[in-house]
Automatic annotation (TrEMBL):
It comes from Spodoptera exigua. It holds the Pfam family zf-C2H2. Residues 210-238, 265-292, 293-321, 322-349, 350-377, 378-405 form the C2H2-type domain. Keywords: Metal-binding, Nucleus, Repeat, Zinc, Zinc-finger. Residues 2-80 form the ZAD domain. Belongs to the krueppel C2H2-type zinc-finger protein family. This is Zinc finger protein. Zn(2+) binds at residues 4, 7, 53, 56. GO terms for molecular function: DNA-binding transcription factor activity, RNA polymerase II-specific; zinc ion binding. Its main location: nucleus. The lineage of its organism: Eukaryota, Metazoa, Ecdysozoa, Arthropoda, Hexapoda. It comes from the Eukaryota.
Length: 436
């Protein structure tokens, strides 16, 4: 009977009697944990299944931590209650009790005064002793007692708060240390929340999705849907005064775009700075030749899994979710759609500071600015010529290779450069057709 002992699901992969991931801070085996949580004893010679699935395994571990926390909290509260009861009996008396004790003490003193009034020396001694205390009336003495009791309660309260804070910090640290030691068996990563991480290994059809209430987009969590709703539908964006760009996080935008030199993490290879260590680690993959993530559809390899998935969506899946409302042309990225819309509006927002020529994208602007440099950094390996731009060098190399890979769409004549083919198509075929 190969079923999960808890949910009766098929193909369980965890054995209750084996304990490959015993935590260092806990000496109990998983079978003992199972007995502690559910009062169910699993024997080695049992004919019933002794295995559970990974989902139930994670739930048992989570419930075990929760129950241990409840037991520890209960023991701590009982200990605290015993200490408070002793303290209340000694110090936290009612004010009426204090007044009654004070009145009885005063009566005793008066009786003593009547008894020894014939002895002046003792009476003077008593008066001097009473005056040395400095308490003129019972109310003054009572106020002094109240102050003493208040100071004691205040100090005791601070000690209790310190104990509670220490207890809370200790529990928080233990929870974090246990979370860091959790190892995912699917990918081998050390994660803080194994339950949330195991959700990523489930098939997409089994994952819970959250649909936007305004549009048709779906998300994997409530937080991502809420963020989408604030940005896309509520328009909660701020405008940067330096570049007039509307962004969702103005402080991060100013830091990353306009004040990059103050970022804390620096790349030792190229000197670029980054806002977090994760972005720096992602950037460091560009300086290595390791490509551990191959595409299953073609022979290309990538440095990160995200880039490989992006390649599959764009090249093989032909995903184009951004549609132009003017010409019905679709694009993979929203940025590509924004650049395409400038072809309809003839907008060119980026100008060259040297010559004033305007361009529609920063990529074309940066490529254009290379012609203003005096240095010719791109040298031909077959002759002595050098060029300011790489595409100029690529066009020149055709003169050495004699490669012609740009055929005319009308007559089939091939050309080495695409601009030569375009010129031929206009002069030989399109010009006469337009004139007629």
């Amino acid at each position: 009977m190969d079923l999960c002992r808890v949910c009766l699901g098929p193909e369980p992969c965890k054995d209750i009697l084996s304990d490959p991931q015993k935590p260092k801070t806990d000496s109990k085996s998983f079978a003992e944990i199972f007995m502690f949580c559910f009062d169910i004893k699993v024997d080695e010679d049992s004919k019933i299944s002794t295995k559970i699935c990974i989902k139930c395994y994670n739930k048992v571990k989570s419930y075990y931590s929760f129950k241990c926390q409840a037991v520890e909290s209960d023991a701590y509260l009982k200990l605290l209650q015993e200490g408070n009861s002793i303290k209340n009996e000694v110090f936290l008396r009612d004010d009426n009790d204090i007044k009654s004790e004070q009145s009885s003490l005063t009566n005793d003193m008066q009786e003593l005064d009547v008894t020894v009034k014939d002895e002046p020396k003792d009476d003077d001694l008593y008066k001097n002793e009473d005056d040395s205390r400095g308490y003129d009336t019972d109310d003054v003495l009572l106020s002094v007692i109240k102050n003493i009791k208040y100071e004691f309660n205040q100090d005791g309260g601070k000690e209790e708060q310190a104990v509670k804070k220490k207890k809370k910090r200790k529990g928080f640290t233990e929870a974090n240390s246990n979370a860091v030691r959790q190892i995912c068996e699917e990918c081998g990563k050390a994660v803080k929340d194994l339950k949330a991480h195991s959700y990523l290994h489930m098939p997409e059809s089994c994952r819970k999705r959250f649909k936007c209430k305004t549009c048709d987009k779906v998300f994997s969590s409530h937080s991502s849907r809420s963020k989408h709703n604030k940005i896309k539908h509520l328009g909660l964006k701020k405008q940067c005064e330096l570049c007039n760009k509307t962004v969702t996080n103005l402080q991060q935008h100013i830091l990353v775009v306009h004040n990059r030199s103050s970022l804390p993490f620096c790349c030792v290879s190229c000197g670029r700075r980054f806002i977090s260590k994760s972005t720096l680690d992602l950037h460091m993959t560009t300086h290595t030749k390791d490509r551990p993530y191959p595409c299953t559809e073609c022979d290309k390899k990538f440095s990160t899994n995200q880039r490989m998935l992006l390649h599959r969506r764009q090249v093989h899946d032909k995903e184009k979710s951004h549609l132009c409302q003017l010409c019905s042309k679709s694009f993979f990225k929203k940025y590509h759609l924004q650049v395409h819309l400038r072809s309809h509006s003839k907008e060119k927002p980026y100008s060259c500071p040297e010559c004033g020529k305007c361009f529609s994208t920063t990529t074309t602007l940066n490529s254009h600015r290379e012609i203003h440099k005096e240095e010719k950094a791109f040298n031909c390996t077959l002759c002595d010529m050098s060029f300011k731009k790489r595409n100029y060098l690529n066009a020149h190399m055709i003169s050495h290779t004699k490669e012609k890979r740009h055929p005319c769409q009308y007559c089939g004549v091939k050309f080495g450069r695409s601009d030569h083919r375009k010129r031929h198509e206009y002069t030989a075929h399109e010009k006469n057709f337009i004139s007629t």
